[in-house]
Amino acid sequence: MLALPVINFTIDPTEVFDTGLLPHRFQVNDRFRKFEYLLNRCGDCRGFLLGSSRMGYTDPALFDGLLTSGRCYNMNISSANAWDYLEVARYLQRKGIETELLVVQLDITEEFGDRGRYQHHPDFSGDSRFRFFFENLFSIPYRSLLGKLWSNVVGRDSSEFVWETGQRRRADAERMLNEDPDAYVQAESDFRVAADSRRVDSGLFRDAVDQTIGVVRKLRHLADQSRIRIIVLVTPHNQHYLDRFRRVDVLYFLSRLAEVTSFWNFASYSSVTTDDRNYYETSHHRPSIAAMVAARVGGKASGSIPDDFGRWVTRDNAGAVLEELESQFAARIQAGLRSE
């Protein structure tokens, strides 16, 4: 019991104590560090990118042109879901942080609800700082402990975080992808895991969708009341990630979303999402793809962005968009690339 807080403080596995004794990171508690930066160093932030780690590789400066003043900040949070996005928006309002723009990236996922527990910044959760640090001192985050030790043995970070922008980076992966993208894809085993083995229960998925739609409705109401521009987009998921979900469930998610808001849909089998060289693994796309998303959303798409990447979906055209996606599913099934 006495050794545990000493170990946690010295190794600082999630970097909430900022000891810096072990320089290389493994798993950083961005649910704490992002809010520390927001409270102390983000005074000119007027736009916020809300999303999970899949939003993390987006340069927020790509959206600065949509503001009248200030800059955007990437508030992506590890394992975040729609519950987090609403709570962050409410927090910004509660703190009186002047906000012009919210860019909300929604994942197709069965995850919903508070998954942060003791990781939340105390100013965000309402708990005392003493309790926050006490729980972090006496927790046993064995994966983070071992991961940080290993990162320092090999002398490199598993992920890089730029707190000034909120952006994530994977310098080593980018270097390998630029040098030989085909070799990188061949070496990344995640691209070859059978999608069926990860298939989500349909009832669980639809329950999460219904809750997510309720949150999006509340987000729109909050934004409208506060005169905040809100842009909703669906993540450009990799082809193998999309294969995890039953096609009727994906269509259910998109049709329900169209009931409460217009949005940009990048979750389809496009020439971008079916090219594994655009991804680090099946869950995270590269910054170059995030830049294409920002260009499409901001109305600055050039000829270099494929026409099949990104569709503007409204209540009126949702039927046609979903019909197009249905045909993509059918073609993929016929080609033997996915089941069901």
State the total count of DSSP E strands.
8
Largest sheet geometry: 6 strands, mixed
Shape, principal axes of CA atoms: globular
* Mean pLDDT score: 95
Structural class: alpha/beta
Give the count of helical stretches. 13
- Helical fraction: 40-55%
* Percentage of β-strand residues: 5-15%
Strand arrangement within the widest β-sheet reads: 2-1-3-6-7-8
Weakly predicted, low-confidence segments: none
Q: What's the gyration radius in Å? A: 20 Å
Number of domains: 1
Distance between the termini: 52 Å
Topology:
Layout (H helix, E strand, L loop, with lengths): L2 H9 L18 H12 L3 E6 L20 E4 L7 H13 L6 E6 L15 H4 L3 H10 L3 H13 L5 E3 L4 E3 L1 H9 L1 H7 L14 H25 L2 E6 L4 H4 L4 H14 L2 E3 L21 H11 L13 E3 L4 H17 L6
Parallel strand pairs: 1-2, 1-3, 3-6, 6-7
Antiparallel strand pairs: 4-5, 7-8
Essential attributes:
340 residues; two-stranded antiparallel sheet; globular; six-stranded mixed β-sheet; alpha/beta; 44% helix
Quick rundown:
The chain is of the alpha/beta class and 340 residues long. The chain has 13 helices and eight strands.
Explained architecture:
Strands 2-1-3-6-7-8 form a six-stranded mixed beta sheet, covered by helices on one side. Helix 9 runs parallel beside helix 11. The protein is an alpha/beta fold and 340 residues long. It has helices at 3-11, 30-41, 82-94, 122-125, 129-138, 142-154, 171-179, 181-187, 202-226, 239-242, 247-260, 287-297, 318-334, and strands at residues 45-50, 71-74, 101-106, 160-162, 167-169, 229-234, 263-265, 311-313. The mean pLDDT is 95. 44% of the residues lie in helices and 10% in strands.
